[in-house]
Each structure stands twice: as structure tokens, then as C-alpha cells.
Amino acid sequence: MQLRVMAGLIVAGVVALGGAALAQTVPAQFVVSGKAAEQIQDFTTINLATAERIAEACERLAAAEGVAITMMVLDNDGNHVYSDRMDGQGYLNIITAEMKARTALMQRAPSKFVMNQVTQNPNAELQRIQLGLFPNSGGLPVVVSKQMIGAIGIGGSAPRVPVWSDEICGHKALQEVLGAANVAPLIEDLPRPTPPAPANPAPVPRFVSTTTPKTGVSNAEWVVGGKGSMNVFDGNQISLVTAKRVARVCRDFAASRGGGMSLYIIDNAGEIVHMERMDGQVFNNIRTALLKAQTSLKSRVPTSVYTAQGRNNPQGQTRTIAQFEFFTNSGGLPIVVDGQMIGAIGVGGGAGGGGDENCAIAGLKAVFGDHVLVPQYPTASASSGSR
User: Fold this and answer.
1) Average pLDDT in the 223-229 region?
2) 230 and 120: one domain?
3) 74-117 per-position pLDDT tens digit
4) Residue 197 falls inside a structural domain
5) Which residue in 201, 244, 309, 351 has a CA-CA distance of 20 to 30 Å to 262?
6) Per-residue pLDDT at 319
7) CB atoms within 10 A of CB 287
8) Kindly report the CA angle at 331 between 287 and 100, in degrees rounded to 5?
9) Phi/psi zone of residue 352: left (φ > 0), alpha (ψ -120 to 50 degrees), beta?
10) Cα(309)–Cα(292) distance, integer angstroms
11) Domain identity same for 290 and 345
12) Pairwise CA distance, residues 160 & 324, whole Å
């Protein structure tokens, strides 16, 4: 018995070593490397540059089809790496993108695999949901040189298989960025049985606006407009192109100081518009960035207000944290332009020592100039930029 156990351990060790050897063959341009990889102790996780290229490729394909999508990229630990919500996407489009990505990550297979299981046996759906799986296509693992480096999920567009679907968009984007040799063929879509017609169908109301919502900002490019704003009945949501411009400045701010940051920009409904985490960022950096954005959205003030209040009156922190569920580290700001709130930003990770709040302010000021509201401190020495 002991010999068998030892033999099993030896085989497991050989497999593990073989896996490590394969992992080392992943081209460096696709994964976190160097000091950033040493920080997270992982040389096999998708990097920001690759995630961004995949998202932008899929968005370009969607725009050519005249549709909008939401893209979520996860690393192989399930952390957010990159996310974009194209203008006009609503809650279901956004949340399902992440659900599909997580399904592909857990299954190590396309989320369509789960969808096909449910198609063949509808009674299996409840169990799949209990396991946290989402039985719909649009989630794909990201595999290079037989090493899984992350997963993507796409939501938001109606399928027209075999011409178009969320999954087809993601598959083409992966081929473009990783090369066709690194992307497995799509699995077959099994036909779904047509459910029986109800004996007494309920009328389904139509709920469509024909009026473009008005905006409260001076530059229409800063917010979702046209058909997109009509889809969500909101003319004051920060647009994707604007959110990405803010993020780019903050990214450069952190990089110029030899560090990194994680960033979330959310709309007034609390949904992700744009998210990115620079290479070397760990869970705490990523999670705190989201919590800061959410706190500023709910409170309508910078999170540095609560940082200062905690120092000045520590007794008040219990209520603020426990009952209001606020995150009290600086780095979160409401995005208020021309007196109109259009979203919120949260930055974590230190921004190379430059300060999370300062990183966010740099991005906001670069894009909105004097139109944006930023924190004002009594003296320069009282400025808080700590994470």
C-alpha cells in the first residue's frame, strides 16, 4: 500500500513538473512577468496588455455588427483584470459577462459546454446554478501553450449563430490576439427544444422610450448619448471612451512612479463601465478599488473624507463601516462634471507611491479640466493621497 502511495506521489510530481515546464513556454507577451510576476508569485496569469487587446478586438467586431457588448477578463485566480461596458448596456448585459467568464474559469471549458448539458437535460440546470455556473454561451478560457492564463466573458448581444454571438465575438478576438493555433475550435451549439405554448399567455408590455434623455454636462462626448442613453433611460452615465481616457492617465501616473494601480469606474447605477488592474496587483489592491468607487457613489463624497474623519473621531468609524458599509480609505471620488454626477472612480494599489486619490484626480483633471469637482484641502500639507 505504501509503495502504491509513493508511486502515486512520484507520478503526481512528474505531472506537476511537466505542467511547470509547459507553463514556462507561455510567450512572455501574454502573461505577467518580471518583478510584477514575482510580486504575485505567478508567471502564468494574463497581463493587462493582453486583456486590453482582447477586449478592444471584440468591441471593434461588435461595433462593426452595429451591436454593443460587455467584456470581462479574469485572471486564473478569478480576479478582475479588465472590463468594458459599451454604451447602452444594462444590468443583465453587464452581470452575465462576468458570470460567463467565471463559468469558463471553473469548468476550464467554454460556458457553452454547460449550456449544452442543460439543453440535453433541463433537470440539470438547478444543480449547475447551485454550483455557481451560468448555462449560457459567451464564456471562454484563455489558453496559451496548454496553460490556462485566464478567462473571458461576453454579454449583451442577441445571437445570430453561425454569423454572430457573444461567443463568436470572443473567439475571433482571442484568435486575433493569441493566434489561431492557441484557440480551440468552438464546440457545437445543440438545438434547444421549443417549450410548449402556455394555455393562457400573459400579455407582455412594451417599455421603450422614443425620447433621448437630456444631459447635465456641457460636452456630450463625456456621457452616454443617442440610442445608448435611450436604452438605459439615462443621459448622465459616463461614456466608455471617457472612462478609458481617465484610466489611461491614471495608469501612466502610476507607471511613471514605478508602481501600479487597480481602477474601477462605475456608472450612477453602480455598474462597471471600465475596470483595469496593472500587472503585479493583488486581490487587496483590486478589491479596495471597487469598494472605494462604491462608497463614493453611495455617499456622494470622496472616501478621503472618511479617512480624515476616522483620524479625527475614531469612535465614528464603527457606524460608518459597520452600518453604512463604507470603505474608509482614500482613493474613491464621485465623478461630478458641471455640477452633475455621472459616475464614480475608485483607485487602489498605491499608484507607485503617488497616492490613489492623486492618481484618480490626475485622470479626471486631464479629461474634464476645470469642469470636474475635486477635493480641496485647507493646506497643501494636509493633502491625503494615501491608499
Assistant:
1) 96
2) no
3) 999 999 999 999 999 999 999 999 999 999 999 999 999 999 99
4) no
5) 309
6) 83
7) 17
8) 30
9) left
10) 16
11) yes
12) 45
SS3 275: strand
Look up cell 455598474; give the residue: 271
Taking 80 as the threshold, does the pLDDT of residue 195 lie above it?
yes
C-alpha cell at 319: 457606524
Are both 96 and 150 inside the same structural domain?
Answer: yes
Interatomic CA distance for residues 186 and 383, integer angstroms: 53
Distances (CA, A) of 206 to 57, 87, 341, 382: 34, 22, 30, 54
Percent helix, strand and coil across the chain, each to the nearest 5:
50, 15, 35
Structural domain range at position 143: 48-182
The residue whose grid cell reads 468594458 is 84
Going by C-alpha positions, the residue among 325, 386, 381 that lies closest to residue 360 is 386
Instruction: Give the burial string for 28-55 (b: 16+ CB within 10 Å, else e).
Output: eebbbbeebbeebebbbbbbbbbbbbbb
Contact 67, 157 (CB under 8 A): yes
The type of residue at 215 is: T
Question: What gap in Å lies between CA 259 and CA 351, rounded to an integer?
Answer: 6
**For residue 134, what is the domain's CATH number?**
3.30.450.150
CA distance 81 to 216: 32
Q: For residues 345 and 241, give the distance between their C-alpha atoms in angstroms, rounded to a whole number.
A: 15
Which cell numbers in the block locate residue 145?
Answer: 501553450
DSSP annotation string for 120-169: H-GGGHHHHHHTT---SS-EEEEEETTEEEEEEEEESS--BTTTB-HHHH
Phi, psi of 273 (to 5 degrees): -95, -45
Instruction: Fill in the DSSP letter of residue 267.
Output: -
Domain boundary among 126, 160, 182: 182
The residue written with cell numbers 433537470 in the block is: 123
DSSP 202-232: PPPPP----SPPP-SSS-GGGB--HHHHHHH
- Whole-model pTM: value is 0.90
The C-alpha cell 480641496 sits at: 376
